[in-house]
Amino acid sequence: MTNWIAYFATVLGLALVVTGWFLWGDQSQTNIFALNIAISVIAYVVMFIDVLLPWGNFREKTQRRIGNLAMRWFVQYGYSITAIALLIICNLANLQFEVSIFLQCGLLLLLIFGIAAAKGSGEKIEEVSRAISHTIDCLQLVRQAQDSLLEAAYDASAPDEVVEKIKRLGEDLRFVTPSNSDESRKVESQIMELFDQTRSLLSSYELNNELINNNIEKGARLIQKRKSTYSN
């Protein structure tokens, strides 16, 4: 229902703009009159396009439309206000049709460039957002692997000393910051592989206790190494 109201209000406003020109506009020069209507309609549509198009898709994680909202508004409202101001100046100065349409076409060209720049900005925001999400997801997998290792230690009734060491691994991981470097990905893969291997060894703790303790110590060293890696 809300969409239909927005469409109706937008169309009604557009009809009022056109009607206003026919009621009070100077129709002595057909080409100038047609140009005035065309520019008014374009400026109106550009200004109120966000009424019809949502500012963002809240199901989309990247939210690229919201991310570059300021730039899009600058382009939209900047064009609309400038186009109307230029239209008024051309009419007051009684500029020739050729001059008026040349100026308006130049302004329209700037609008197209602005739209292209805003679109490129949105794509860049999406790219960066996806990269950050991927980085955070990878780090979250490491933390989940540590949680699984701790659960396996409880299930295997491992000594309290071993359980505390595994808990400390989790505490250390809390202070690891996301990084998009290849070295970070490599270390995170090594940590997860080590945790998975250690979890399988816990099923026979008495036989594998020395290797388990060595793996936990190695895991602590890898986490410290991961802390020292930074984003590109």
Provide the fold topology.
Layout: H1 2-24, H2 30-47, H3 49-52, H4 64-67, H5 69-92, H6 97-155, H7 160-173, H8 182-201, H9 205-227
Helix pairs in contact: 1-2, 2-5, 2-6, 5-6, 6-7, 6-8, 7-9, 8-9
How would you characterize the overall build of this protein?
With 232 residues, the protein is mostly helical. The chain is built from nine helices and no strands. The model has no long low-confidence stretch (mean pLDDT 85).
What is the rounded distance between the termini?
Answer: 48 Å
Structural class: mainly alpha
Overall number of strands: 0
The portion of residues assigned to helices is over 70%
Work out the strand percent.
under 5%
| Arithmetic mean pLDDT | 85
Order of helices and strands: HHHHHHHHH
| Count of alpha/pi helices | 9
| Unreliable stretches covering 5 or more consecutive residues | none
Calculate Rg over CA atoms: 31 Å
Globally, the shape reads rod-shaped
Largest sheet: none
